[in-house]
């Protein structure tokens, strides 16, 4: 760290520091490769023949890559159906979370009526309580509505996100000046016009971040979809895959193929949305 | 001025109420009521279908603490949670320090991304990758052990080893989050502190020990609590790696959420499962309370 300061002030590092930096780079590169290795092997195994899967040491790039595993998985399981289910679930959940967070975050951040603090406090309090604590009563509620085993039943668990309201509220307080809203009011603008035309465009950044977080949250949800869905064609990807891999008869090649297909969308999505995602997760650590 | 404020004030109030209403209704239905229901159900005996739902006070809780399966779940979950903590926080701190030190390296983006990817990818496929690694017959882990002349282990069948496998998988996932938050923490430490220490002749290690660690204390605590809470709620990882559902090979590592789901949906004991949920809630609240308390003390000092 002491040498970072010198780097910032433009003093060139000494030979000793340069060697140390090189060693640190090597350590980090090796560690990072080890972190990625399980996923790399998973994807590579998906393209291997049964014989090659048994070989030691395992190859990273399959010698005779085959698509057999993938075609056979796609023929045997409704994997595409599961992907579609998960996609619609994630999109609807994202829309619900983004819109409730935008509206509530703005009101809770800019309107100082009595009671606003209590509402915000209650919403924040539910953020501390894990979903697993109250999912059984929520399940019973979904059951009463007759929505078990449906997309709407799934959605009920993922309509709101306390962290989203918190994130937007923070941004509204810190980055949208009161004068801006005040000026529009004096010009005679209605409250809803102010929200839609002035506030919402300014919230584009944090709402984008929130959308990425919400989409991932639903895409990777497991426990709730596990209890809500009951038939093969209503499974989400995670549930379908988890139950598929418990089967006795499934071989490693096809398991890897199914897992790799499930993994790919989340990796691709992450690659495109990396900045948003990292910002969102990082800001969750700053709520002290 | 006050008059003017008064006129929009009323309009503003109507807008605020109407705008908050949808979120409030949703919160009431999908958060507040179910949370209260959990607390209430924990005091009743109910089998999910019967009309009879007698109030039994704290009997569910009394029974829980004599229930061997629940105690096993509580023990396993606690071991896993603290195991993940013991790996993730020190390792994450060192990695974040090294990455922060090499911020100007051309690999900096690669470091951040590759450590973070395991945290974001879907749980089940990632757990399946590890299930292959741990596989007793085909897995590379035993093969690597063999290179060092160590005997192969039945990783997912041995009760102790299976828990270690779960800890490794969960730490692999949690590490990216810890590193990311620590990096933010490192960036927020004023450079002037390091410069002053350097003038006094402090070594890099001394700086880390006497400046970075104390400055990062709140962040360390935050990551520790988040990591523990997340680990107390694990289910998917255990389901894939070590549950025996539908005859999959692997020993069952009983964790709290699994035990809770089994009690409510396999044994139809909803009140009993709710009591378990209340205990989970108590653990989480206790952890949060510790965090708040330390923050408050820090603010006062």
From TrEMBL, chain A:
Domain ABC transmembrane type-1 per the UniProt entry, residue ranges: 83-273
Membrane topology term: Multi-pass membrane protein
GO cellular component terms, semicolon-separated: plasma membrane
GO biological process, one term: transmembrane transport
Subcellular location: Cell membrane
SUPFAM superfamilies listed in its UniProt record: MetI-like (SSF161098)
Claim: Transport is one of the keywords in the record: yes
Top-rank taxon, per record: Bacteria
Positions of transmembrane segments: 26-47, 87-109, 116-140, 152-173, 194-216, 255-273
Chief location of this protein within or outside the cell: membrane
Keywords: Cell membrane, Membrane, Sugar transport, Transmembrane, Transmembrane helix, Transport
Family designation: Belongs to the binding-protein-dependent transport system permease family.
PANTHER family (alphabetical): ABC TRANSPORTER PERMEASE PROTEIN MG189-RELATED (PTHR43744:SF12), ABC TRANSPORTER PERMEASE PROTEIN MG189-RELATED-RELATED (PTHR43744)
Descriptive protein name: Multiple sugar transport system permease protein
Organism: Chelatococcus asaccharovorans
TrEMBL record, chain B:
Pfam family, one: BPD_transp_1
Natural source organism: Chelatococcus asaccharovorans
Presence of keyword Transmembrane: yes
Gene3D superfamilies: MetI-like
PROSITE patterns: ABC_TM1
Residue spans crossing the bilayer: 12-33, 79-98, 110-134, 154-184, 219-242, 270-290
Keywords: Cell membrane, Membrane, Transmembrane, Transmembrane helix, Transport
Alphabetized SUPFAM superfamilies for the sequence: MetI-like (SSF161098)
Membrane topology: Multi-pass membrane protein
Subcellular location: Cell membrane
Coiled coil: none
Organism lineage: Bacteria, Pseudomonadati, Pseudomonadota, Alphaproteobacteria, Hyphomicrobiales
Family: Belongs to the binding-protein-dependent transport system permease family.
GO cellular component term, pick one: plasma membrane
Protein name: Carbohydrate ABC transporter membrane protein 1 (CUT1 family)
Taxonomic superkingdom: Bacteria
GO biological process per UniProt: transmembrane transport
């Amino acid at each position: 760290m002491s040498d970072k300061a010198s780097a910032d002030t433009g003093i060139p590092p000494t030979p000793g520091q340069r060697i140390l930096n090189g060693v640190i780079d090597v350590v980090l590169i090796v560690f990072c490769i080890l972190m990625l290795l399980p996923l790399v092997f998973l994807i590579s195994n998906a393209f291997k023949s049964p014989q090659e899967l048994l070989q030691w040491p395992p190859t990273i790039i399959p010698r005779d890559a085959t698509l057999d595993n993938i075609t056979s998985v796609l023929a045997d399981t409704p994997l595409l159906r599961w992907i579609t289910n998960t996609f619609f679930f994630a999109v609807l959940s994202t829309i619900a979370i983004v819109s409730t967070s935008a509206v509530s975050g703005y009101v809770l951040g800019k309107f100082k009526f009595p009671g606003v603090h209590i509402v915000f406090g209650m919403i924040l309090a539910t953020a501390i309580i894990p979903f697993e604590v109250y999912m059984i009563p929520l399940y019973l509620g979904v059951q009463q509505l007759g929505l078990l085993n449906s997309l709407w039943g799934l959605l009920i668990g993922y309509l709101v996100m306390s962290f989203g309201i918190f994130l937007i509220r923070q941004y509204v307080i810190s980055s949208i000046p009161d004068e801006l809203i005040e000026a529009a009011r004096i010009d005679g603008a209605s409250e809803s016009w102010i929200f839609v035309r002035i506030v919402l465009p300014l919230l584009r950044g944090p709402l984008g971040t929130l959308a990425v977080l919400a989409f991932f949250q639903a895409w990777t949800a497991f426990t709730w979809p596990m209890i809500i869905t009951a038939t093969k064609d209503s499974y989400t990807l995670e549930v379908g895959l988890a139950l598929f891999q418990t089967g006795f008869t499934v071989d490693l090649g096809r398991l890897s193929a199914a897992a790799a297909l499930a993994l790919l969308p989340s990796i691709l999505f992450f690659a495109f949305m990396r900045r948003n995602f990292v910002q969102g997760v990082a800001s969750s650590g700053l709520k002290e | 001025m006050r008059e003017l404020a008064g006129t929009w004030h009323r309009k503003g109030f109507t807008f605020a109420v109407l705008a908050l209403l949808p979120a409030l209704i949703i919160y009431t239905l999908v958060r507040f009521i179910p949370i209260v229901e959990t607390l209430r159900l924990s005091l009743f005996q109910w089998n999910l279908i019967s009309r009879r739902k007698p109030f039994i006070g704290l009997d569910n809780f009394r029974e829980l603490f004599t229930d061997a399966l629940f105690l096993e779940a509580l023990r396993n979950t606690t071991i896993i949670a603290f195991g993940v903590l013991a790996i993730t926080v020190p390792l994450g701190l060192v990695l974040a320090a090294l990455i922060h030190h090499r911020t100007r390296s051309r690999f900096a983006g690669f470091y951040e991304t590759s450590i973070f990817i395991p945290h974001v990818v879907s749980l089940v496929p990632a757990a399946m990758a590890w299930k292959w690694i741990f596989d007793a017959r085909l897995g590379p882990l035993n093969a690597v052990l063999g290179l060092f002349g160590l005997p192969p282990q039945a990783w997912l069948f041995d009760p102790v080893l299976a828990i270690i496998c779960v800890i490794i998988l969960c730490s692999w996932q949690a590490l990216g989050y810890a590193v990311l938050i620590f990096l933010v923490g490192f960036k927020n430490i004023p450079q002037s502190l390091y410069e002053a220490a350097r003038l006094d002749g402090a070594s890099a290690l001394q700086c880390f020990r006497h400046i970075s660690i104390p400055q990062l204390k709140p962040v360390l605590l935050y990551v520790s609590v988040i990591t523990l809470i997340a680990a107390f709620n694990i289910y998917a990882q255990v389901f894939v790696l070590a549950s025996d559902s539908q005859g999959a090979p692997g020993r069952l590592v009983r964790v709290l959420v699994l035990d809770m789901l089994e009690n409510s949906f396999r044994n139809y004991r909803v009140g009993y499962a709710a009591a378990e949920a209340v205990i989970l809630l108590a653990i989480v609240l206790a952890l949060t309370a510790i965090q708040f308390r330390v923050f408050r003390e820090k603010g006062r000092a």
